[in-house]
Amino acid sequence: MFSKTIDIHDLDRGVDRKQLHLIRQRFIELNQQRYQRTAAALSERQQQFLALLPLLFHVNHPMLPGYFSHQTACGIHHYSPGKDELRIAKTLARSFNYNRDLMASDNAIDALFVMGSIGTIAQSDSSDLDIWICHADNLSAQALADLHTKCQRISQWAEQNIHLEAHFFLMNCHSFREGKVAKLSSEGSGSAQHFLLLDEFYRTALWLAGKVPLWWFVPASQEKDYAAYTNTLLTKRFLREKDVIDFGGIPGIPPNEFIGAGIWQVYKGIEAPYKSVLKLLLLETYASDTDCEPLALTFKRAIYQDTPDANALDPYVVIYQRLEDYLGSRAQEQRLELVRRCFYFKVNKPLTRGSRGPQKSWQRLLLETIVQGWQWQTHYLHTLDDRLSWKAPQVIAERTLLVNELSNSYRLLSEINKNNFTQAAITNEELMILGRKLHAAFERKAGKIEWINPGISRDLREDSLCVVQERHDEQDRWHLYRGSYVELQLRHTTAEPIKRSRHLVELLLWSYCNGILTLETKLDVISNSFQFSNIQRQQVLQSLHQWLPLPLPPVAHEQFKQSALPTRLLLLFNLGVEPQAELHKKGMQMLSNQRDALGYSGFRENLVLTVDVVQINTWQEIVCRHYASDALINSLLHYLRLLPPGRGLALPELTIRCFSSGQGTIITQRLEELWRDIIACYYSNTRPRNSRYIFEMGDEYVLLQFLQQQPHIIRYKTYEKLLEKLGNAQLDYSPIVIDRYGLRDKPLKLFADALAMPGVHVFYQLHQPEKPCASLTVIDEKGSLFTTEMPYHNQQTLLRPLSRFIRAAMERQSLNGEVSLQQLTMQSVQFFEVMGNVKQQQGYLEQRKVNSDISQLGFVNIQVIAEPDADGHIRYTLYCNQQEFSTLEYGAGLFQAVARYIFQQRLGGEMYPCYITDLDLSLCRDLIAPQTGLQLSHYLQVKADLENRLTQALQALVRGG
Predict the structure, then answer these.
(1) Which of 471, 576, 681, 949 is the most exposed place for a label (fewest CB within 10 A)?
(2) In sequence order, what DSSP letters do the residues of 815-861 get, joined into one string?
């Protein structure tokens, strides 16, 4: 007879194969106990599925779950189905007959294992199966792809038919030993952990079929010499290599795995915080002591020392015992208490309630034994057992404890990693992805909605809620209370609000997202200044419900490979405020045939007062922002900053709602039209990205333009100031786009509508007051405006010199490289006369043909050459009928000298304007337009200034007579 303790420490003295057999027997015995416990917690059909799993991968049969093709890799080493497995297969596929035709000639599957909480004290009805399909290393990429497809089909079958979640992982022991693992996914930790995963595998894996782990046969004392020890076992044929599978030994956990694994556990804590706290603290115990033995080795020592006890070696019990020893030795009682609660909730067997069946389950009996040692009071146990019915205050407090523990443990791991100066084992890409997931779940930022219930309670909904507005230090504050306002007043003690916020919508959205506020909840809103009727409350809740149906679908893992992008926006206008408030109080509203909500009635009143912007992105972060003033401008900038045009990204879906009682529909329609038009302007690829969009708002003109990929909005009180701004130089062609309701009584709308293509467009309007004059607007090749008013004799004397000058300037631009020859050829000069009554919105344009020949007009031909001097001033040389006049000769009297010459050339001394027909600015670019380069509007402005000075000199000459 052998003693209970197995000792095969010294191979040089030889190994009794009976001891090796006993080792295998003990592991198999424990495995069998765990298998029976697993099956006992499953439904009958789920038990059949678990029993059938090896057969599904041993053969390919068209009628069995997961079938893909007859060539799919199959066949499990040393597996032969029993009568029960064949009977189950027959119930699923009547035509199934087990024969060699279904089996592969070479076994492609080395072994099958199941990991997870199954077979442990923490197994529940919702426990999933993590199944390792350990395949041979000679499978081709196509064979692995086919096998992967078969796994997916089995998963789908299990979920659809027996409501069991099964995840399959294709594993190869050689690749695993070399550190080659699958990429990070929502279910797999990728490169974040290797030895930690192996540690968990060896102490939790349930062996189903195939080869058994070689690790079983290596005493814990020989773990550091694992390679040499196993080599001796195999080369001396104590074991046959074809009967074992080797994932490697665990000499210890390298420090470089702690950071990646820590981040992974914090991420898993988003949905399963109790489990993650336990696992993260286990990492802390490993990291805090380099000599700390991995649990897998403790587990193996226990099996070598005695007949295995399934209760004592339960994976979760073993973890708890290690954590209790660790925290107890450090006198960290509060953390230990949290660990006990996490363990209790993870097991999820309420001890104050009766058991489901006539007999208590082994899990409940074991939990009772463990909890008895904690000396918890009965009322405390009742509180814990009511966890699924906890409401928001308790859930918030619990989540705070959990998040603090997750954060503290991860911070400690980070410090340990820094002190060890080790490079984290996790790849940079996987570290980035996990970091983004943690950012989305836990990072706080202004207006972000925090999810407070990571599986703590089943239902947070309230029958009644009360929101109270208070004002302190000139700041509004909103408080959310449980119960109605009447109940709040009847309470004898001061109630503590569930949540505080600066803005109502943020409070409502937080309540809605966390399931506290539903469509059935009675909501009281108490405020002295906020106008919020019962109908409006229902409208707001309906809007939230339609815009954000709950629960949200899980975020695909791939979304975190890219930066977060907004997917949907909800704009809530005028919530709690009423335009024309005084009339509204009297039950009246101003009627108008003017349907523009941005310029309503004859008073041009802007009805858009406030806005709440709610957005959700690809990481499912929900952010709320309130604008109490300049609602339209701020919401436009908010929207346009999210995705500047030209990036080729999909625009977020936009929903606009307005809750004003009187003009809500008018406001909504107007804003939807405005957004559609702006989107069409900048995001439809029909206009340049730096187009200038103009609309009217109240008594202001609003100019929108993208500069350096960012939206800029400028407001002007007068039409003249707007025109002045539109005269600024542009880097590229920037057409003017007028809003459908904008500038209907201004000629600029006619001009903008006429600009189909880049070019030079001249618009003029003739006036006949006492002295005939003309309003002249030139829109140059980049869309800049030049506007002026000037006297005129007739259209030919007004337009021909201008046409001549424009063509000369364009030729000079081409010669100077400011405009290419191709652009010069393509750009036409078009003249339009403004006709009709523009102020009565009856204006229109008529195109005119203008000759640039001025030889018959009797004008003095004036050419100007500009050049900078040493002081950075521009000096001019003028040529009148080829006669030169310069400051070198005339100094400050240059224009008087030119005026005298022109006056002498005019028969009868007529007094009419001077026209410059050619201007050279080629040396003055750095002075006039260093950033944008010269464009036609610069030439026109210099021309106008010079002509004005000449005219003034002529007038002075005439007066001095």
Answers:
(1) 471
(2) HTTSS-HHHHHH--EEEEEEES-TTTT--EEEEE------TTTT---
Q: Please report the beta strands in 212-269, taking only residues with DSSP state E, as ranges in sequence order.
A: 212-213, 244-245
Question: Which pLDDT does position 9 carry in this prediction?
Answer: 66
> Which residues, in sequence order, are CB contacts of 539 under 8 Å at separation 6+?
657, 659
Q: How far apart are CA 67 and CA 231, in angstroms?
A: 39
Each residue's pLDDT tens digit, 109-129: 999 999 988 999 999 888 899
The whole-angstrom separation of Cα 644 and Cα 648 is: 10
Average pLDDT over residues 621-638: 95
Q: Does 769 sit behind a cis peptide bond, omega within 30 degrees of 0 on the bond before it?
A: no
Q: Which of 660, 670, 657 shows the shortest CA–CA distance to 578?
A: 660
The CA distance from 756 to 742, in Å, is: 19
Q: Which two tokens stand for residue 612?
A: 């709440």
Separation between Cα atoms, residue 698 and residue 456, nearest integer Å: 51
> Tens digit of pLDDT for each residue in 830-879?
999 999 999 888 999 999 998 766 666 657 788 999 999 888 889 999 99
In the sheet that 736-738 helps form, which strands lie side by side, from edge to edge? 710-716, 700-707, 692-697, 736-738
- CA 680 to CA 655: how far, in whole Å? 16
DSSP codes joined into one string, 539-582: HHHHHHHHHS-SSPPPPPGGGGGS---EEEEEEEESTT--SSHH
Alpha-carbon torsion, ordered 883, 889, 895, 896, to 10 deg: -100
The three-point CA angle 876-878-881 to 5° equals 170
Stretch (H or E) spanning 500: strand 499-501
Backbone angles phi, psi at 135, to 5 degrees: -105, 160
Question: Which of 556, 717, 564 lies closest to 642, judged by CA?
Answer: 564
Q: Specify the pTM.
A: 0.82
Length of the chain: 961
Q: Are the C-beta atoms of 107 and 136 separated by less than 8 Å? A: yes
* Residue 883 burial by Cβ neighbours in a 10 Å radius (0-12, 13-18, 19+): exposed
Cβ-count burial 695-726 (b if 16+ within 10 Å, e if not): bbbbebbbbbbbeeeebebeebeeeeebbebb
- Cα distance between residue 858 and residue 861, in whole Å: 9
